[in-house]
Amino acid sequence: MIRNGHHAMNQQGKETGANPGAAACSPEKRRRTIRVWCDGCYDMVHYGHSNQLRQAKAMGDYLIVGVHTDAEISKHKGPPVFTQAERYKMVRAIKWVDEIVEGAPYVTTLETLDKYNCDFCVHGDDITLTVDGKDTYEEVKRSGRYRECKRTQGVSTTDLVGRMLLMTRAHHSNIGSSDYQQHTDNFGKGPQGHSPWTGVSQFLQTSRKIIQFASGKEPQPGDTIIYVAGAFDLFHIGHVDFLEAVHKQSDKPYIIVGLHFDQEVNRYKGKNYPIMNIHERTLSVLACRYVSEVVIGAPYAVTQDLLDHFKVDLVCCGRTEVFPDKDGSDPYAEPKKRHIFRTVDSGNSLTTDNIVQRIIKNRLQFEARNQKKEAKEMAVIQAMKRREEERMKERTQTIL
């Protein structure tokens, strides 16, 4: 059971050590608000994106996120999986984001930072390149208005796309299998690839990471405790719209999300589901601003014990298909008997299956996109190595 902040993130939720200057100064002593800029495609938003934004928010007070258009992404990288409207809404739903800028330029300039009164921009410790192979942050780096945060190991859009196409259940535990190896060769690093920024690696959950994502708010007097449950696999805009609709069911909602274990999800979904394992799904859901608490490994049936333990006032379910429990019974029988069950229509019928179908339909495009991306990155890496070798040679000659 992991408690999450269902309103604005408090100061205690800030990560210490991200920016010594900012962390050492209390909000009362600061003379002004530190405004931070992030930008990106934010396509197939996952907990790696959320972690970047969490780290960026910890470096200042107010976080503005610029999101690129479909046209800009197609020009520099290749076709996005989600539309710009979907991507805008996904980023807005991340609890560390204070404001988004729609249609932000692909290349980050001082003009953009000044336009939105931002002190500096933050990006991960990978590299983002234009269509002609130039660093998109070159100008702000030269001016000293660039900060770097740690890239989240074990997740990338490249990896998630590959998992969907693999159509086996090897992507959680059997990373050394021949099927998975073929996936890494096609979509990322693997033994035949070289770029450290376009690759596949295994995610390792830690208690520290969960604590960083969860801010531990207790339900307050007058809160309506609402319970929802499901897989929440590949946490997407359909989930966000549903949770937003649930959030509107009360003036003071406290939303608890029950996440089913991987084996349970595979029982009722089949195929290679879930695409994300339970640890990854936990972080994805915790990053959503509408969620107050997460139950890891919730029972499929909403039982009397569960309702009593969490003092649940309302149980909500979407209009998607509800699968019966192992014995064929209705998993929502108990809340229906108590008359605290409600079906919520979010107006969005997008499912994880729909996303997988989008990927399968455009498989060749995505393979070409990632190969092109890695080729550009390798060119930059080789250039960096050559410059470093030249510097070492100059130092050696100076010493001699």
Q: Could you write a compact summary of the structure shown?
A:
Helices cover 39% and strands 13% of the residues.
Task: Describe the protein in words.
This protein has 400 residues and is of the alpha/beta class. Helices cover 39% and strands 13% of the residues. The chain has 16 helices and eleven strands. The strands form two sheets. It has a six-stranded mixed β-sheet with strand order 1-9-8-7-10-11. β2 (35-40), α2 (47-58) and β3 (62-67) form a beta-alpha-beta unit. α7 (157-166) crosses α8. It is globular and about 85 Å long. The N and C termini lie far apart (63 Å). Residues 5-24 and 174-201 have low confidence and may be disordered.
- Tally of helical runs: 16
Task: Please give the order of strands in the largest beta sheet.
Answer: 1-9-8-7-10-11
The residue-averaged pLDDT reads 83
Integer-rounded radius of gyration: 22 Å
Task: Give the percentage of residues in beta strands.
Answer: 5-15%
Order of helices and strands: EHEHEHHEHEHEHHHEHEHHEHEHEHH
Number of strand segments: 11
Low-confidence stretches: 5-24, 174-201
Distance between the termini: 63 Å
How does the major sheet shape up? 6 strands, mixed
Q: What is the structural class?
A: alpha/beta
Helix content: 25-40%
The shape, in one word, is: globular
